[in-house]
Structures are given as structure tokens and as C-alpha cells.
Amino acid sequence: MHKKRYEFISGQINKVDEIIKKLIDFQVAIPSWALGTGGTRFGRFPGGGEPMNLEEKIEDIGLLHALNGSSGAISLHIPWDIPTDAEAIKKLAAEHGLRFDAMNSNTFQDQPDQKLSYKFGSMQHVDKAVRKQAVDHNIEVIKYGKELGSKSLTVWLSDGSCFPGQLNFRKAFQNTLESLQEVYKALPQDWKIFVEYKAFEPNFYSMTVGDWGQSLLYSSKLGPKAYTLVDLGHHLANANIEQIVSLLLMEGKLGGFHFNDSKYGDDDLTVGSIKPYQLFLIFNELVEGMDAKSMNHANDLAWMIDASHNVKDPLEDLLQSVEAIMIAYAQSLIIDRKKLVEAQNNNDVVSAQEILQQAYRTDVRGIVAEARLRAGGALNPLAVYRGEKVREQLIKERGSKTVATGL
Ligand code: RM4
Ligand code: MN
Ligand code: MN
């Protein structure tokens, strides 16, 4: 079945081996906080067998990577994932073929042993002592990251205001910039810092890093090691994310991605489950923009998933998400770029649409599966996961009442 499907598709497109090589090289980092059942603010229904510590999280991601060959990195969140024995953690990750992608700091929650509260913000706070606490936390996160061999820090701030008048926007921006500058100073030479924006939630009147313009302002003022991070769920409804991506790339300021999907807000649903065409259009801009700058698709941007699971088995959901990313990437690689440029230059709008949709409507799953096989993964990861009764085994090992750290 696979052989037939692969032969059919590889006969239709050019340079299939080059495409397969790119697919094999392309790795998507899995967030440590997406391995458990997230729940909503109304309730949480844990599915059992969830990882209870960093070691078990690494094992879960190792399993995903063994199945699909494309999940060779992990993104950690501190303090949820403090590595008490960094050497042992590094060794375990290496055994599973995993590297450490961006480290994430957390100043959107108060921790039990914390002196000052982030209720009214962290880096934007009117009290300098709170800002310093947030800066120190980020510097500590860098320290853990260095121990593990990570090379980047993602800062997502929930800072903002819920009501008009609560904040002086300009002062909040300036405080945040100063705090980020302190963190920037502590960044090792070969590290990057990603400033992630979000339009709303948990603050509902203003967010201090609310959109890509604000993030770009911060990252431009910070310096060459600072970049903007795009999380697909962090825009106002119907925002043209592909255009945002294109311009950030043009400016050399796109740092990385948090993939997920959504219908209404920051829904954190499975990648490609709601708007697969949008995902394809984003990949179209990514590939075109990276090629225009001779960038390396696999390494020059940070590719991460940021999702949350309420009703699905988190590992099955992540397998689906990675598959959706690989499909969109493969489809963007088969776009007839020459013809598209021609159509654009001739104002041939009809042909331009035809060219994009020709690629989007091509069933590339045979190529993606072939790449997975060549990388040592399974032909059908989901089927293997279910066939081997992985969740049942995890429940047996870890118990049915486990709750993973995270949101
Ligand atoms: C936020 C944001 C961040 C992530 C947290 C857990 O909504 O997307 O990237 O660190 O959730
Ligand atoms: Mn995110
Ligand atoms: Mn989010």
C-alpha cells in the first residue's frame, strides 16, 4: 500500500529525494507541558499514565521521536521542569536522540516559595523589586538551559491590564523593556531570546506584549540576539498570520514558532485540525522567505508545538500535530515557485491561486511517510501507538491518577 502510494506521488513531483532529505532534517520540539491533560479553567480530566517528572517527560517524547523521527527536541518550562541533576537529564535525553530547544520562563504564576506576587504583572510592574524578581528568574532559567545545552530563552509575559486606567501603557512598556534588557545582558554569546506576543488573556483590556508590532519593537531595541516568536493562537480573530511571518522574516527578526490551531482564541488545539489551509499558507511564506535569505529550514528558526489537550490522549494529539506540520511543510516544498512568480508579475490572480492550491490539494502523505521510514520511524505512528497499547502500559507503570506539571 505505502509503496504504491509513494511511487504514485514521487512520479508526479520533481526532486523527491531532496524533499525527503529536508523532511528528515526538520525536527519539531515538543513542549514538556503538553504531555499531560491540560483541562480548562472549569475542570480537568486526567487520562492516566501522565509523566510525573522530567525523566518521564523525556521518555514520552523519546517515544514520539522513535515513532515519527521528527520530534527530536524538547522545550522545558521552569520551574515546572527544574533539572536537579543536569548531567543525568542530558544523558537520558541523548539516549532518546533529543536535544534541548528553547527554555521557557514563568512569571505568569506565583510559586509557593515566591516573595513578591505577579498579580499585577512581572516585568512591567510598578514596583522595581517585583521587576527584579522576574529578571532574576529569567537569568536562573538561562543557567538551567546552559547546563543542558539549550541555546535560547522564550519569554512569554502575561503582563497587561484588565481595565482602562489600570496601567500607563508607556510606563508599562518601558519597564518591560528595561527588564528584558537586563535579561538580554545575561544571555550567553551564542544564545537567542524570543519575545512571544499574545493579544489577550489572561489580561483582557491590554497586553504589554500584545502583537507582533510590539514584540518587534522590543526585539529591535534589545539587539541582534533578540527575535519575535509567533504562536499561532495569539492573534486577534482572522489576523493574516502568513503576512506577519513574511515581514518578520524580511526584517531578520522571526525567531521561532509555537504551532497549534484554534477557532476562537488561544484554543491550543491539534495543529492542522481547524485551519490546515492557513497552516499551508504560513509554510508557503516560511519556505519562500527562508529561501530568499538562503536560510537553513531545519536550524535557523526554532520550531515548537505549544498545545494543550482536554479530550485526546496527549501523545496521540502530538503525533497528529507533528504529522500536520510535516504535511504542510512538504506541500510548501512542492509549490511551483517559478510559475508563481510569473503569475504574480503578470497580475494573473487566477493562476496564482491555482498554483498554490495545486500544491495544497496534492496528497503528500506518501512522501511524509517515506521520510519517516527512512529516518527509522514507523509507517503509521498512531497505529503502532494504539497497537502496542502504549497508554495502557504507561497507566500500569505510572498509575491512573497521575497529573503532569504544566497548565
Ligand atoms: C502561554 C504561551 C506560552 C506558554 C504558556 C504555557 O499561553 O503560549 O508560550 O509558555 O502558555
Ligand atoms: Mn506559546
Ligand atoms: Mn498560548
Question: What sort of overall outline do the alpha carbons produce when their principal axes are compared?
Answer: globular
- How far apart the termini lie comes to 41 Å
Question: Count of helices?
Answer: 15
Secondary-structure element string:
HHEHEHEHEEHEEHEHEHEHHHHHH
List each distinct ligand once. Answer: beta-L-rhamnopyranose, manganese (II) ion
Mean pLDDT over the residues: 97
Helix proportion: 40-55%
Helix/strand/pairing class, anyone? alpha/beta
* Major beta sheet, strand line-up: 1-2-3-4-6-8-9-10
Question: How many beta-strand segments?
Answer: 10
Q: Provide the β-strand percentage band.
A: 5-15%
Largest sheet: 8 strands, parallel
- Radius of gyration (CA) equals 21 Å
Low-confidence stretches: none
Description:
With 407 residues, the chain is an alpha/beta fold. Helix content is 46%, strand content 11%. The chain is built from 15 helices and ten strands. It has helices at residues 2-12, 16-25, 54-68, 86-95, 128-148, 169-185, 212-222, 241-250, 276-292, 314-333, 337-345, 349-360, 365-374, 381-387, 390-398, and strands at 29-31, 73-77, 99-104, 152-156, 160-161, 192-196, 206-207, 226-231, 254-259, 302-305. The strands form two sheets. Strands 1-2-3-4-6-8-9-10 form an eight-stranded parallel β-sheet. A two-stranded antiparallel sheet has the order 5-7. The chain is globular, with a radius of gyration of 21 Å. The structure holds beta-L-rhamnopyranose and manganese (II) ion (2 copies). Residues 33, 104, 156, 196, 231, 258, 266, 306, 407 line the site of beta-L-rhamnopyranose (RM4).
